[in-house]
Protein 1
Amino acid sequence: MSLLDLIMVTGTVEEVEQVAPRVRRIAISGVPGLPWRPGQHVRVLVTDLMALRTWLSGFKDVLRTYSVWDYDPRGRLDLCVLDHPQAGPGALWARTASIGQQVAFTRPEGRLLPRDEAPYHLFAGDETAAPAFGAMLRALPPAARVFGAVATAGLPLPRAGELAAVETTPEAGGLAGRVRELELPERPGVAYVAGEARDCQAVRHHLMRERGWPRDAIKVKAFWAPGKRGLD
Ligand SMILES: Cc1cc2nc3c(=O)[nH]c(=O)nc-3n(C[C@H](O)[C@H](O)[C@H](O)COP(=O)(O)OP(=O)(O)OC[C@H]3O[C@@H](n4cnc5c(N)ncnc54)[C@H](O)[C@@H]3O)c2cc1C
């Protein structure tokens, strides 16, 4: 067993599907028995560890973070990766992923998890948040009340009819504007907010200042920020 095997899990790309114009679903097989909860992510090794440029860059661009879209504990894990115009090593890895390719990634982790006891669930995010939200929505009991404003980039989300569509990655403040338009119950629920960092802040600000939600009812996770590489 190598050092890499101690830190990471290795599987094989079994399927690649262009599930929406800008989103590729990459199914990785041969990874049974991982402890995963819907909403959690893995960190994928997206560059060749042995390449000279990896060593010269000080290992900066080695890992990129992706939510688990779905996981079958018999050994198959699905990721959904958004292509974006400034494609760094993560987007480039997804563009070129092919069947039979080996993929190493860290075990699932993260605290963006649905809270069972919530009176209702509010999802707000951009296209990078849609895969995590999809897994979370699938895990909710059918009786759970759901609201949301989510940019999906065409990724088919469960309970999509209960979510307001956000057409594109919104400009700063755009996502908060869509959340402001939602008719929510008087009493706070639990909010899950993810995607571009300033949008996440703007949604939190709106919920706290304009709707009077307590901070601990809002789970915020910035997934990326303009000009920053490999946020996690
Ligand atoms: C917990 C967590 C879960 C995530 N889950 C997913 C997921 O399921 N699917 C998914 O597609 N992404 C997901 N992301 C976001 C993804 O990790 C980032 O978008 C990542 O920066 C992409 O890596 P890259 O190498 O392509 O670009 P980087 O090298 O990181 O960045 C290069 C340039 O592109 C810009 N950039 C990065 N991401 C975007 C974007 N989305 N839109 C426009 N510009 C961008 C950066 O600001 C930078 O200027 C997640 C992030 C986190 C922290």
Protein 2
Amino acid sequence: MLTLHVLGTSSAKPAKDRSVSGSFLNAPGGPLLIDCGEGMQQRIAGHDRWLRSIGSNERTRISKIRAIFLTHGHLDHCWGLLPMLHSMDKDSRTSRLEIHGPTSNAALDWVKENPGDIPSEDSGVHPGDLAIQFDWWKKHGGNGAFNFEIDWILHPVDEIGLEGIMIPNQNEIEIHAYVTDHGIPSLAYCFSTPELPGRFDTKAARLDGHDEEMIRTMASDAQNPGGYRGPIRSSRSILISGDTTRNVPSFSRLNSQIDVLVHESTFDDSLEKEAASYGHSTARDAATVASQMNARMLCLTHFSSRFQEVSHLEEEARSVHSNSYALEDGDRISIDSDGTIRLERKQSESWHLIREVQES
Ligand SMILES: [Zn+2]
């Protein structure tokens, strides 16, 4: 089961009822964070309080986060990180934390030669590159200032081919990163559960007269003695685009492997030119990408704060990909091992189901 709590759906600055980027993924093995815009630790804690108040057995606890994946170094995606680390420390965290992000080899070389400095415009290195920011954060509170160890892990995008890279992780999932197109080193992350054996039909085995011990033996044997298992349950995956134009060559290779695509949708049709020149996508761009990769559901996020409401972006996307939804802050997207996708929205005291998609 993968469950993504989307805790920020605005682009460069917060808007009414929308914070900047950040999502909390409950995955097998422990929770992960994708992007960390300003105020993220408060958003996660507030969401957790709400979950507790409705009696949910699911939680979003900052203390449990095992790793953080930053899509790129623009501040609306990462400026909540240092305060979040500070909060973790105040909460007496002792367990190690991994922080991943993209960079370039040029930026890595630059930091080695100019530690603690900011690159000038003619240096050829983007001042927002995460190699620069990691260097600063380590100095200003990230290195030795906390009671827990941090692994700062940078992935040079120049070394990542079309097939992306697999990121080793302590969770029971696979994590892949793909280079996106945003004018600064940037990555999309895909989180996939492993393929599982089919469900064992205990009822059918009992009806056939097997005793409980024999049923237990058969149920624990992946070779499927007795033939009581259903079909193998496929890997399930959710891909989070970060900021990007629609021109991501890696994405076209992912045909039919993605259940949910969470894609940025900063602009609408009327701002197509702006989308291309600022390294962003329109809702239609996002839906075109979702169709190309045969994603079963498209969830739009990262809306320009100029939009008071975003239903027209949803409509523009749906003209290309019928299962397209504009996200709101607090939305929950879940994919279970049988392939059922649910998009749910917070109501006062419960989740409201927006859409359920069964495996066809
Ligand atoms: Zn950006």
